[in-house]
Amino acid sequence: MANQNPAVSQTKSFSTVFLIEMWERFGYYGMQALIVYYMVQRLGFPDEQANLVWSAAAALIYVAPAIGGWVGDKILGTRRTMLLGAAILAVGYALMAVPTESVSFLYFALGVIVVGNGLFKPNAGNLVRKIYEGDDSKIDSAFTIYYMAVNIGSTFSMLLTPWIKDYVNLHYGNELGWHAAFAVCSFGLVVGLANYMVMRHTLGHVGSPPDEKPVHMGKLLAVLGVGVLTVFASAYVLAHEEVARIFVYVAAAVVLGIFVWLIGTSERSERAGLIAALVLTVQTVFFFIFYQQMSTSLNLFALRNVNPSFDVFGFHLWNWAPAQFQSFNPIWIFILSPILALIYNAAGRGGKDISIATKFALGFAAVALGFFIYSWAAHFAVDGKTSSWVMVWGYGASSLGELLVSGLGLAMIARYVPERMGGFMMGAYYVASGVSQYLGGIVANFASIPQNITDPLQTMPIYTSLFSKLGWAGVACTVIALTVLPLMRKLSAQHHAHNNQAPLPTIGSEQ
């Protein structure tokens, strides 16, 4: 289904996907900013339970796209599956807006979000690839801009939903603010869907083969039926910690087994690339353990031990809600992305392109610096409350690490893995990322605060001890990444020599 004006259609088609992705991320990160606080402050969860429930949900949310991409490619069509996922996500956030304190209802709502994300996430990204298919000169820049959609949506929602929660709770009481904030997340998806309906003609020529045929009601009902079962299965996993742990460990074993089997059965010329992908995937798993602290231990640290006052040269500017500190992550992404792009381009022009393995090592060094900054918080504290600038600079270093590691994750799979197994391996990569989300929750629990301790002077050393350990863990990851650099250079050279490939793109797909 070709379009008569490809140059115009690419721009308009991309804009349509960009906008619905932006609103979807608005909903997701608006929910993420509050979910741990909601469980601790509204539902009375201890820290350990809140961290593990959210981390298990995050793991399921990352695992689900491994199946959703296949549904889009083979069963319903990429466009239809993306839209179905967006609609289900709107329902999931709307369920969280229901003013109830039922824990089972929360697990059910999170299960709906797992299914919606699984259907939406891989297919939105696949549409971008299909829009620029065969045009390698544009696809890298398109994904860089697409990555920005995530940060636009997440920045606004992480600033907005905590404010809405506080405003409604203050003026209307009854703790309705939590549910009003979740309702805004659902509204974001509704806006995204409405925007798509207005612009849907721009994607009429883009999609997978099932998109070009009428909807097969039997297949649609089958997908919905499996989706309902998955919702209840996800809710069961979230309600049972031991089941969640077993699920995560089995998923980790499956991913490792997939890599080993593919390396063992692939052609000799493909093995160097697959081994390189395995090494970098393992490094990415460790990165996401650090990354998960943003919504768990760091989020709770901001609640209990960070002064909300934002001062510059002694002048008070404004107060941050504790949950709003997470917005520093996308704000720093905005600031650092163009700087990194300039550095990469300058290095490329000078014939000194920075390898992806080197970027991973630098990324871990930045992550280590970020956690060391957090660990120094007590030195800037008054009565157990540290300066908000600790969070600003800590998030700055962590976000630099994210761009160097997470921003290149899927691009790494696309480059090193043979095309015939690319989709399968991207699914495995998502599963590996999900595993590390849960492991991150386990790590966060080393700083869980007993419910009878409320004094910031007592909680501060508990958090800074964990952050210091994570800083040294980041140093260890940096050393390991540097140690394997000679191996990675050898594997990369063998892979590129066989495939005669161009260097990796600078900033890849978002997570």
From TrEMBL:
Keyword list, A-Z: Cell membrane, Membrane, Peptide transport, Protein transport, Transmembrane, Transmembrane helix, Transport
Bilayer topology: Multi-pass membrane protein
SUPFAM superfamilies for the chain: MFS general substrate transporter (SSF103473)
Record flagged with keyword Transmembrane: yes
A Gene Ontology molecular function term of the record: dipeptide transmembrane transporter activity
Classification via InterPro entries: Dipep/tripep_permease, MFS_trans_sf, MFS_Transporters, POT_fam
Membrane-spanning intervals of the chain: 22-40, 52-71, 83-99, 105-124, 145-164, 176-199, 220-240, 246-265, 272-291, 331-348, 360-381, 393-417, 429-450, 470-488
GO biological-process terms attached to the record: tripeptide transmembrane transport
GO cellular component terms listed in the entry, alphabetical order: plasma membrane
Compartments reported by the entry: Cell membrane
PANTHER family: PROTON-DEPENDENT OLIGOPEPTIDE FAMILY TRANSPORT PROTEIN, RESISTANCE PROTEIN MDTM, PUTATIVE-RELATED-RELATED
Name of the protein this chain belongs to: MFS transporter
Native source organism of the sequence: Rhodanobacter lindaniclasticus
